[in-house]
Structure formats: C-alpha cells, structure tokens
Amino acid sequence: MTLDIVQMVLVTVLTAATPLILAAIGELVAERSGVLNLGTEGMMVLGAAAGFAVATETGSTLAGALGGAGAGLALSGLFAILTVGLAANQVASGLALTILGLGLSGLVGTGYVGMKRDPAPHLHLAGLSDLPLVGDLLFGQDAFVYVAVALVLGVWWFLGRSRAGLVLRAIGDDHTATHALGLPVRKVRVLAVLFGGACAGLAGAYLSLAYTPFWSPGMTAGRGWIALALVVFASWRPLRVAAGALLFGGATVLQLHAQAAGLGLPGQALSALPYVATILALVLLSLGRRQGGSLAPAALGREFTPHR
Amino acid sequence: MLGVSTLGTSTTMRTITGAILAALLLAPAARADDKLKVGFVYVGPVADYGYSYQHDLSRKALEAAMPGKVETMFLESVPEADSERSIEKLARSGAKLIFTTSFGFMEPTLKVAKKFPTVKFEHATGYKRSANVSTYSARFYEGRYVCGKIAGTLSKSGTVGYIASFPIPEVVSGINAFMLGAQSVNPNVKLKIVWVNTWFDPGKEAEAAKALLAQGADILTQHTDSAAPLQEAEKAGKLAFGQSSDQFRFAPKAQLTSITDDWDGYVIGEAKAVLDGSWKSHDTWGGIKDGMVVLAPFTNMPDNVKAMAEETKAGIASGKVHPFAGPVTKQDGTVAVKAGEDAPDPMILGMNWYVKGIDDKLPQ
User: Fold this and answer.
1) Nearest alpha-carbon partner for B221 in B285, B288, B140, B316
2) Which residues of chain B are within 8 Å of residue A223 when distances are taken between CB atoms?
3) Is B347 strand, coil or helix?
4) Which of A22, A181, B52, B178 could hold B42 in an S-S bridge, CB 3.0 to 4.6 Å?
5) Predicted complex ipTM
6) Residue A109 and residue B47: Cβ atoms within 8 Å?
7) What domains are there in chain A, each with its CATH number?
C-alpha cells in the first residue's frame, strides 16, 4: 500500500513536470541562441486549444499533438518575423504574443468547450510495467512523457556535443562576431525560435490531450511563465531544466499530498513552497557563481541588425 | 532574475487581455429606443461552462421571456481589477439595468452607480448596497448539505475528499454544510481537505484529486471550477460531485450530482421590476426553494439514496431541513448553534470556523 502511494506520488510528479519540461526545453534553445521569447504562455495555451481541436476532428491523439506543436510553431513564426526579421523589441513582442495566444486559443477552442476525450494511451509492457515501485513510473507513461525525456537528452547532446549546437551557443553569446565570421545568425535564431514554439505548443497539447483531457480557456494557468522561470533557474542548462521541473512539480504535488494526508501544515504556506524552492535555488546558484559573472547567454534579448 | 519577475506578470497579462476583449466585445451596443437595455458583466468567458456560462444562460432566458421589451448586452472576461471602465461603458451605452456578476466587481459597481443614479445595478455575491445597487447571491451551502448526505451514505472507505479554493466564508460554510450532511448519516465520516488556492487550474485540481484518492478518499467534491477532479474520479472508478454546471458528460460513471446556479427567475424578475417601476434596492439570498440553487439529476447511486437525496432537497425547500440546524459544535468544542435553533444568516455569511469532526486546520 505505501509502496503504491510512493509510486503514485512519483508518477504524479513526473506527469506534473512534463508540460514544464517540454515548454522550458524549447524556450532554453531559443534563449541560448539569444532570443528571449516571453510568449511561452500564449504559444502553450494555443497549442492546448489547437491540439484538442485537431484531435477531436481527426480522432487521433497523434494528429492532435502535431496540431498543437504546429500551432505553437506558427505563432512563434510570427514572433521570429518580428524580432529576428524586423529586429523588434523582444520583450514587447513576447508579451504581445502571449496576449495574442490567449485570445486566439479562445477563438480556436470556442466550439470545443465542454467536450471530453479519452486521455492519451499509456505504454504497457507486460511484466515491466507491473514491476513494483518503478514499473508504472518507467514503463507505464504516455508518449508525451517519453518525448519530453528524449527532448531533454537530445537538446543536451545537441548543445553540448554537436557542432551546430556550438554555433547556436556562439550566436547567443555574440551575434556581431558570429555574423562577421559568416555564420547564419538570423537563420539559426529563426530555427531556434520555431523549435521553442513547437515545444511550447506540444506542452499545451499535453495538457489538453493527456493530463486533463478537455479544453477550457486559460487552462495552462500560468505554466508558461513557470517554464520561463525554470530556464533561468536551470542557468540555461538542459539537464538542470529537467531537474528544476521535477523539483517544482514535486514541491507542488507533495504539498497537496501533505494536505490530503492531514499533516496539519497550513495550505497557503505549502502552496508557496515551490516558489520558495525556486528562489532558494536561484540564490544558491548565484552565490556559487558570484565570481564568474552572468550565466545568461551574453546576447540574450538584444536585437540584431546585420550590417550590409 | 528575469524569470522570477515574469511569474507575477501573468495576472497583468490576463488583465490586459481581458481589457482588449472587453473593448472588442462592446461594439454591438445599440442606439436608443424604447426597449429596456440590460447589461451583464462577466468575470470569465461565457464559454467556461461554469459560473459565467450559467449567468449568460439567464441573459438568454431574459431575452426569450420578454421579446421586444428588452435588449441585452454583455462583456465577458472582465478582470476584477479593471472592471470600473467596463461597467461604466455599459451605463454610457444606455443600459438601464446592469448585472455585475463577480464578488470583485463590488467597489467598481458602487462607484459607477454613484455616477449614474438613474441606472439600476445588480451585484452578485457582494454585501454592499446603495439606493440603486441591489445584491443577490445563492445559498450554495444548501446544495452542499444534500451532497454531504449522499457522500456519507455512499462512501465505503468512510473518507471523502474535498478540493477547496480559498478560505473565504462561502467556501468554509460549504465545507461545514457538506460535513454536517455527511455526519447526519455517518457520524464517523472523515473529510480530507486540500486547499489548492486557485479557482481554476485543471492541472492542479487533477493533482489534488489524485492525492486525495491516494489517501483513501472514494468520493470527491470540489469548490473549484474545472472538470478535472471529476475526470480523475472517473478514471479511478470512484465517485464525485460536479461544480458550477452539469458536468455529467465529463464523467458519466462518476458524477453523483452537481451544484449549479440558476439566475433566470431572478434576472427576469428584476427586469420586470425596472419596467413597471417597482424596482427597489434590496438583498436577495436565494436557495433551493427559490430555484436559484439547482442540483443536477442524481446519477450513479442506488434508488434508495436517490430518494433520500430528493427528500432532503424537498425538506430544505420547504424549510423543514436546515443544514445548520442546532446543535452545531465548532471544531474546538464550543457550541455555535444551540439545539432547536438554526444558524442565522449573518453567521453563515461570515463563517470562519470548521464544525467538529473536520480533521484539518482552517488556513487563516
């Protein structure tokens, strides 16, 4: 029985962390290329609406997930045109993107409010999925969870081990020098932003297709902003993004379990726990790096116009 | 530091979005003629299938009930912090009766009412009135008492999970009424309460539901607005109560009933009163008797439980049953309502204590 509860808590933590991982890993890539896209919440909520709409129309969860990612991608394309193409202010454009996304999602989702779907299918491997403690956790999740894990590992490999990743990071640190070297600054940034948008859209689709399989306006409830915070929290490192998301999801879920178990802890204080954990981690991180200067990509948020 | 500061921006974002939406939606305000123009201000989108949706149904009912006599307009997703402008806009576009439907619209409504003394205002769930501002609300706790009785009867584990939003009197009185109802059929029933500190966050509500189910609750009830807890109950093969609107389609095997509001009668009555000149500022707190609190059909329960629920509902409507009939004992053992008495309305409206038997500390 207790083993079951432990496993249940772990599974809940993992699933609660999944949308954060998906959105944050995409945003991380965009930010490592030097583009700050504050529109994560907007792309995510549009992904949730579009994902649900496509899945309902086609009857396929996979199509829905692709639809959600596509919607996020399309919205981030607009952002890329504005900020990379026209060198518009990234903060203002990102905020506008969130507003646009929230509005559009309401429009796209209008006809789908009050409908429900079966949640995305979960993996089941005979034998493995029934292992005590870890079976369900490792081998009984839906595809989104495995995609999130794969994305984290993929991005970690890409940024740290591949030449293209090195180029992306260099562009994020100094767009003038990399441009002078003949590297395609704007092309890389556009691709990075599009990747971020697709990931955010997928994160939204996870919410409306797997986590709570229905569409409701504003259902992301601020997760896009948490994902943005996570990137900073993770000091722009992919594996730390996953760890941070798990920590954040874990703190949220554990406080709910603590309340349900009647541990007598005050609810509001417990609700603040994840945020306190975030701030604490930020403080510790900056203390550890006090001598080393900023951890952020050096060109983050700065507009770039190539000289001709 | 960027990420941390942006966390707080999400509310600002919603404010801005709401304001833009409000501005866009106001467009179809018609010019003067002899029809009574009735305005509605909603805090959420009318498509929320919850609180604002129920209110919008009453707007449609009003149009259907008095064709040719009234004309309605509405603003949706109006943020509470920025509602004064929206309310004033309705008044300027000729509305003579305006319903402001969220608690947070209270002060803005009063302010605008002062500027437009000939316009009548109706504020939902507030407590401040003036010469041209009435207030109205529903006795949701009556519905929760019925739910409590059902839960107390049906729970096999004897443990019921309650997902609560914020520790305000409306929520606390709902918890107490639910517990008193459950205790009336099973004195040893346990109530596990999880405060999620949000009205609407499907993900968090689902997590809370999972936590409660893991801790042995076999029936869930909620004072939050999404259908996520119902879906979790359905997935786990357990039972649950819906909230705000009939959410049966989300959980056809789990929903026992759902507490919903029906403002039709009230809205139509007030419009008639304005038309015949008999409108006066007053306070209305309607319950099951007035048809303001409606319970969705009782489902997924045996016939005898259904009969008991119907009987309790009828008893509350006739006044025979009062959810807070004495003796009611507080958690600390002091007597709140003496035997033979019913809790007075002000006590229910200001309830900030748990009844005996609830094993949780009320967040203060």
Assistant:
1) B140
2) 203
3) helix
4) B52
5) 0.84
6) yes
7) 2-288 (1.10.3470)
